[in-house]
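In the previous chapter we treated chains in isolation. Here, by contrast, the input contains two separate entities that must be folded as one system, with a combined length of 542 residues.
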Amino acid sequence: MIYDVLISPFTEFEFMRRALAAVIALALGGAPIGVFLMLRRMSLVGDAMAHAILPGAAIGFLLSGLSLFAMTAGGLIAGFTVAILAGLVARNTELKEDASLATFYLASLALGVTIVSIKGTNIDLLHVLFGNILAMDNPTLLVIACNATITLIVLAVIYRPLVIESVDPVFLRTVSRAGAPAHLAFLALVVVNLVNGFQALGTLLAVGLMILPAGIARFWSRDITGMICIAVVSAIVAGYAGLVLSFQTKVPSGPAIILVATLLYMASVLFGSVGGVIRQMFPGRHLEA
Amino acid sequence: MAAQLQFRDVTLGYDRHPAVHHLGGEVAPGALLAVVGPNGAGKSTLFRGIVGILKPLAGSILTGDLDVRDIAYLPQTADIDRSFPISVFDFVGTGLWRSTGFFGGMGDKRAREKIAQALAAVGLSGFENRGIGTLSGGQMQRMLFARVLLQDARVIVLDEPLNAIDAKTSDDLLALMRRWHAEKRTVLAALHDMDLVRANFPETLLLARGPVAWGKTADVLTAENLLEARRMCEAFDEGAAACVVHDVPSRAA
């Protein structure tokens, strides 16, 4: 019985195996990025960026229909353009990153909707907006795995300046010129992972497997390494459980994954060992020193 | 001996408004220099110019053969995100950037010993695994000093290092500054306690949006000079004309 529910969907159906491989890749790349987004108070920036991808994906769609390659390439270009322009404006003017990004993403969202309205049908658009992880083919899976690999390698390279820039940006500026390149590389990684998520979860939910696991991790660990590990594991768990839920109940896969992640998040808010509600209500006797 | 830092009629400020107007002079290698002046006098602005995160509006600051990593800068604590989940050990360890760079380990024995020594020097042994968000103001300042220690820099720039610090911590941190001075490092510190400056700093620069006096502390901190500094007008004048003064005689010692 348990085997039938939890295991057999993956042993019997290839599309389920591919979907599982995809969520694992998404979790490995996206969750660490989500942790940094959260710690840099950029959670909503990730969401804004997800919208910024839309016009690029729409142009790809306009040029070659529902071709994943064209839409991915378009999404990457649009996302990078917005990220880099917003980053440059924030670094070189008085405008903060969130405000500068808001203007750019609104512009690209408007542009995207305009482009889609030229050629799109509602059914095609549903695919763009919500993705379809169960319809994943091998080339798409390879793109996702490739992006996750690039993410982990680049993150390893920029990890130290990224951490220092998050906690004490002035210090980094006085010891190294790595701050700006690291910051831009980080924004690029955000885009890469949003495009990744967009394949599986669509533009509206792409940021979900980045931010929700990060939020979960905040309630279980006090240090950033622990947070990253917990975020990755919880993203994988949510992805797996979401796929099972989707398979057994016919709930669309993207929302199912995000809803499971939301349940994990709510449980963490309640029971988390670091600042969880119950922990705060019953902290135990205070210590002597 | 060649100057460690040279101010060449430098003007620093924000949005065309000068916060430090026409400063000229030199800081000798190994100097122990107090920078004093009222709030808004331009002390922090000057320091930001020295460490290169603020470009002069006019003139220049020459740092000779100093590399960016030869200058250690302790900003006012407000610049640090204390909610970031990082331990005291890791935070202080970032002071080793010069030797570790992007990838060098902080976990090997030599690095661990250095970090432990720096923490011991500021009285924070045993705090290694504490999150920086749990530190008091004084402990935070000690931790920042530990990081400066690890930076092993030739020039050390301290922006109001003794603000809201109790007497004991203040004494300990002053001892560290004297130690750096004895090690022939150049130390610049922005301070507000004139008695403390008189007792510990041989040289003082009195600022009030421009140099008022610069030289031996006893000569600088006179009642007349301090009164002049107090009369400084803090506000920017939006209607001010463009400054055309090119040659202001240096008030350097």
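Chain A touches chain B through 24 residues (CB under 8 Å). DSSP finds 15 helices and no strands in chain A. Compare these points with the single-chain example from earlier in the chapter.
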